[in-house]
Amino acid sequence: MTKKTGKSKSKNKDRRHLKAVPSAPKMPLQLVLNHRAIDSMAVDFIQWNAAEAPDPADAFECLELVKLFLTAQHTINGSSSATAIDSDGVEQAAGAIAVSLDPDEMDEVFDNIYFALHSYIHFLKATGRWSGTDAAYEELHAALGNGITAAVPQLPVIQVPDLSDDHQEAAFNAMPLIQHATSLLDWIGTGKEITSTGALRLKDIEPAAAAVGVHACGKRAASRTLPLFDLETAESRPKTLLEVGTMHDVPVLRDIWSALVGANLITLGSTKAIPGPEVAAWNSTRIEERLDIRRMLSVVLLVGVLTDEDQVWDQEAVAGTLLAVLTYGTTDEPMPVAELERMASPDLEGALLQDVDLEDTKLEETGLEEVYASLAALQAQQKLTLLAELGLVEAATDYRVPPVAIQCLDLAMGFFNLADEPSETTESPSNVIALHRPSHTGGPPKGR
To answer: Rounded to whole angstroms, how far apart are CA atoms 295 and 36?
Structure first.
């Protein structure tokens, strides 16, 4: 008789325990095949999506969101397709995912899913992989487009006034931006020496700053702490000498210099800044040429202010606030200066300038979102002060865009159009605006 070792009992016991553990639910075969189909497109999708999101991780995240959506839709409808997504129940499936992930962030999750699906079906159509009908594609595209449009801030349509050439020239010539640019170009003359980084040498900062109405000088190892920029200090600035270690720390000068370079009025060489090819238009005898280059300089400066990455707060959130104030400044419903001051809390201003940990000071009282909005408003307020000093904005009781500058704002807005092309849900290219085209990655679109 074979001796019992007891091993068989332990094996049977383990098997009983395993039987007691519920097995993971099996995915329907159709859904498994759809997920595999999406995986097989990954390399092509990464390459196709690289123009919008160079990081492959972003493309993978987008495809994972699509697979998650198909799983939810299959559970609800009993069927799914990787190449002919049914528009019925899109909102229901997206909602089911949002609730399961984080009910408190449903709007954000909705946006992420819609952006991912929108990118994915564009890829299917562009690469000939869409297997549904054209009508089904258009229906799905419209449903997703409506969801995306709802997530984007609705800004007023800019109505550009019809101004005569003489009116425009008089208005531009009275604009401080144009006056300072003319003075700076006259000072540059045939050329000025620059460093390897494209900045003026320290000895030339003082006359360059004087050309734009700022009392500043270059000094080695100067503090990079800049004074708070507002109209009060702007008016009194010539009385106080500002010592800087680089021309990029001089208010107004840095912005006008960058705009002159961007408008091809200054050309930066390896050792010298010289007049650019558009200087001839600046001094042209033809009024059309003079207006075109002054308009272009204003547009370049506006775009530079809106896309400034060298700041302490979220550039896109700041630009979103700034765009809203500017566009409403072209209408009969401008934002009051006092309202933006209220949004930009003085306490938060102090925390920002002193680099205080916000989580230890204001979060419990106001909440994270309110703090972020206040900081964005503070930064936008400072940028509007710059634009007001240069004449691109009027900031008496309300923020208003002068008639001659409205055309410049309208042209600048073209750099921030959300859609690849105008859609049926967009009245005009400047009607629905976002700061950057969506990344289509499933990550939260910035600036919202």
So the answer is: 53
Residue type, 247: M
Look up residue 165 and give its two tokens. 């050439």
| Residues near 412 by beta carbon (within 8 Å), at least 6 away in sequence | 299, 302, 303, 306
Could you give the CA distance from residue 265 to residue 185 in angstroms, rounded to a whole number? 8
> With pLDDT > 90 as the criterion, what percentage of the chain qualifies?
34
Task: Write the CB contacts of 373 (distance below 8 Å, at least 6 apart in sequence).
Answer: 317, 321, 343
Q: Is residue 33 classed exposed, middle or buried when 0-12, 13-18 and 19+ CB atoms within 10 A define those classes?
A: middle
Q: Does pLDDT of 313 surpass 60?
A: no
Contacts of 424 (CB under 8 A, 6+ apart): 142, 145
Lookup result for tokens 């006034």 = 161
Q: What is the pLDDT of residues 73-129, one digit of tens each?
A: 888 888 888 898 888 778 888 877 777 766 566 667 777 888 888 889 989 988 899
Phi, psi (degrees; rounded to nearest 5) at 123: -60, -45
Token code pair at residue 158: 């800019």
Q: Which of 87, 86, 107 is nearest to 98 (CA)?
A: 107
Q: Residue 221: what are its φ and ψ, rounded to 5°? A: 60, 25
Structure tokens at 154: 């609705």
